[in-house]
Amino acid sequence: MVSLFQILNMILSIVVFVIVAHVIMSWLINFQVLNLRQPLVAQIWHGLNRLLDPLYSRIRRLLPAMGGLDLAPLVALIGVYALQIILRNNAGFFYGF
Prior knowledge:
Number of strands: 0
Oligomer: single chain
Strand content: under 5%
């Protein structure tokens, strides 16, 4: 069961990394530091969008329109951190007391 705890914790850490990478990449694209005409940049960008759009679209349905400000990544990060806290607080279940 310890392995299950570690795997779940690792998956949540990877999700945090992917969300942060997507946010940073969106800033770099918007400030024209990165260009979507570059094949590698475009491929990474579209891959991250495909991964995160199902999660973000569900969150965006719940959030009110903010006029160009997208809070879906922030809400997703808060949700992932909440799941990590819940997982750590219930670690005794995985370790068998």
